[in-house]
Amino acid sequence: MHTTDSLDVSHAGHAHEHGHDIPVGWRRWLLATNHKDIGTLYLWFSFSMFLSGGVLALLIRAELFQPGLQLFAPELYNQFVTMHGLVMVFGAIMPAFVGFANWMIPLQVGASDMAFARMNNFSFWLLPPAAVLLMGSFFLGGGATGSGWTLYPPLSLQMGAGMDFAIFAIHIMGISSIMGSINIICTILNMRAPGMTLMKMPMFCWTWMITAYLLIAVMPVLAGAVTMLLTDRHFGTTFFNAAGGGDPVMFQHIFWFFGHPEVYIMILPAFGIISQVIPAFSRKPLFGYASMVYATASIAILSFIVWAHHMFTTGMPVTGQLFFMYATMLIAVPTGVKIFNWIATMWKGSMTFETPMLFAIGFILVFTVGGFSGLILAVSPIDIQVHDTYYVIAHFHYVLVAGSLFALFSGFYYWVPKWTGFMYNERNGQIHFWLSLISFNVAFFPMHFLGLAGMPRRYADYPAQFTDFNLIASVAAFVFGIAQVYFLFAVLLPAIKGGKPAPAMPWDGAQGLEWTVPSPAPFHTFETPPVIK
């Protein structure tokens, strides 16, 4: 798809390598303005938050191993549940995708760096203090907030100081997201290489540009919701307090107007990664590129009109239920287009199954299961039955773990030779994939049955009839956790420290400008913009 003119791109990338001083030591990281360094910082931050959130998940599963209270008081259990959600959404998945964006977008569009290099640095360094606020709230007098990651009042109005810490952390992370989004949009719209029209851009750039618009649209909405919580808690307002004329359900409307586009913010960049990996290992161009772009935009637009499908049990009128039910089903259409296109790309391709491709195919298989359970939840009479049960937990872990996380792993294995200059260990990567795929399904598939049988979420105890499935889920969750630690020590650290040196083009089917620069990508790339024919 992208061929470069007579220009020798790799040489252009090297031309001024020694002309600029590359900072060393702590300065290189603390004052980083290079998109690759900032991308690396984001990826390390998100991986550490992923492990922290994973520990919280394993504490939850340890408590649910048997009925009765095993290890934690219900209040502490609820803090674990809440913080697991907040840490994984705002600390792990979103920053990981921003790390990929920082690393790959300038390389894919032929830009020398991100549009606003210093703002890029600032938007990263907002995150560690926010993470300290979030995780540090466990050590306050009243502990962390235990209101659930959705922070519904009246519970969130009754929490201790940990709730204020969470509100402050969400504000700071939201500011970081907005600044990162502005940077991504400006880079893609203004800094593309000559000849790279919008419809020649890699799908990853398209999905991220659309995601960035979504972030700018919905992050201020979340800020408004948590600010109203804050003033209700401390300044005597009654936005969500029925005794003062407020309405706790109004919070749900405002929160989910942010929260539903948010779930697409966490999956659209994943679609972009998969759309890069599958053509590379099928050795065919992406099937239906234009339809993929339009489908991505359709998902983004439709995501604003489905928020109340999270609220079918709040007593909305039947017309409202019908509207949100049909709108939610409609969003399955562009998603189906994407899955069709990926399968059509693989059709009759000369496929090979290296780890990036395994994670991409695993993504399609398991994400589709999550998509179907989402369609089932869109049917309001069914949703009213399974609302706030483990069926919902199963659904959103299928789209977030098997969706976002598997795509992130796919992208990591695909691009890590370009990042570090070393090939990862293929056998260890495949072990990581199979361990993750099998343990994930064994952990989360039984939760569909638990939910259909009526086991509610966010409880530290449960009746004895749910024991067997919970035992299976807990054991498998620990295996999944061990698989990620295996990834850290058997794949990630060896790929950084050394190994087989990676060529500039490690995959013979890969397309795109990022493969025209040497591996590892030099500190300065594309100082002379490449020309696209």
Automatic annotation (TrEMBL):
It comes from Noviherbaspirillum album. CDD domains: Cyt_c_Oxidase_I. Keywords: Cell membrane, Copper, Electron transport, Heme, Iron, Membrane, Metal-binding, Respiratory chain, Translocase, Transmembrane, Transmembrane helix, Transport. This is Cytochrome c oxidase subunit 1. PANTHER family: CYTOCHROME C OXIDASE SUBUNIT 1. It comes from the Bacteria. The keyword Metal-binding applies. It holds the Pfam family COX1. Its EC number is 7.1.1.9. InterPro entries: Cyt_c_oxase-like_su1_dom, Cyt_c_oxase-like_su1_sf, Cyt_C_Oxase_1, Cyt_c_Oxase_su1_BS, Cyt_c_oxase_su1_dom, Cyt_c_oxidase_su1_bac. Its main location: membrane. It catalyses: 4 Fe(II)-[cytochrome c] + O2 + 8 H(+)(in) = 4 Fe(III)-[cytochrome c] + 2 H2O + 4 H(+)(out). The keyword Heme applies. It is a multi-pass membrane protein. It is an enzyme of class 7 (translocase). Pathway: Energy metabolism; oxidative phosphorylation. It is found in: Cell membrane; Membrane. The chain crosses the membrane at residues 41-60, 80-103, 124-145, 165-191, 203-230, 250-274, 286-310, 322-344, 356-378, 390-416, 431-451, 471-496. The gene is ctaD. Residues 29-533 form the Cytochrome oxidase subunit I profile domain. PROSITE patterns: COX1, COX1_CUB. Belongs to the heme-copper respiratory oxidase family. Cytochrome c oxidase is the component of the respiratory chain that catalyzes the reduction of oxygen to water. Subunits 1-3 form the functional core of the enzyme complex. CO I is the catalytic subunit of the enzyme. Electrons originating in cytochrome c are transferred via the copper A center of subunit 2 and heme A of subunit 1 to the bimetallic center formed by heme A3 and copper B.
